[in-house]
Amino acid sequence: KFYNGSIVKAITTVYPEHRWMLWMFTQTRNQFWEDAQATIRKQFFEHIRQQKRFKTLESFYQLTPKDVLHYGGNKLLKESEGSVAALVMAAYPDHDWEPWRFVTPLPGWWDDCANQRRFLEKHVFRTLGYRSLNDCYNLTPEQLLELGGICSSPT
Which of 76, 94, 121, 152 could tie 33 with a disulfide, CB 3.0–4.6 Å? Predict the structure, then answer.
């Protein structure tokens, strides 16, 4: 009769003073994550951050799809094709993320040459102490793989 059969709507309306974690309800609408505002998505990741005792945003690099599922983000994870990187980067868009550091890759990220260049310049060249592109003559596919990068097999 009331709230169109929605437990979530009923409870949150009756107790508006409580800070609800809407994703924790077992009965959520199928469209919940699709309709969820950016603030709700950020609250979801802030909840994970608190539960896992992440001190900095960089700790999200170690977050796995299993973690997201554990905290109730199964539909959210499906929406992002299993990419934790895409979800976290969308929740914190002002942070300067290094997508190659995530446990699960960002779909299609490596396909863009500009992203490959960013990875090389911001990570590989700095890590290896390269000062010019001429230093690349000594770079091996194994080094790129070890640093998380763009060569899938030695050529």
Answer: 76
Q: Counting Cβ atoms within 10 Å, is residue 35 exposed (0-12), middle (13-18) or buried (19+)?
A: exposed
Phi, psi of 15 (to 5 degrees): -120, 65
Structure letter (DSSP) for residue 31: T
Residues 137/143, Cβ–Cβ less than 8 Å: no
Cα–Cα distance for residue pair 7/20, rounded to 1 Å: 13
Q: How far is CA 130 from the centre of its chain?
A: 30
Burial 123-142 (b: 16+ CB within 10 A, else e): bbbeeeebeeeeeeeebeee
- In the chain (155 residues long), the average pLDDT of successive 10-residue segments reads 70 77 62 61 92 96 94 85 91 92 84 88 92 89 82 49
Q: How far, in Å, CA of 112 to CA of 149, rounded?
A: 13
Classify the phi-psi angles of 17: left when phi > 0, otherwise alpha if psi is within -120 to 50, otherwise beta: alpha
In Å, how far from its chain's centre is CA 101?
Answer: 10
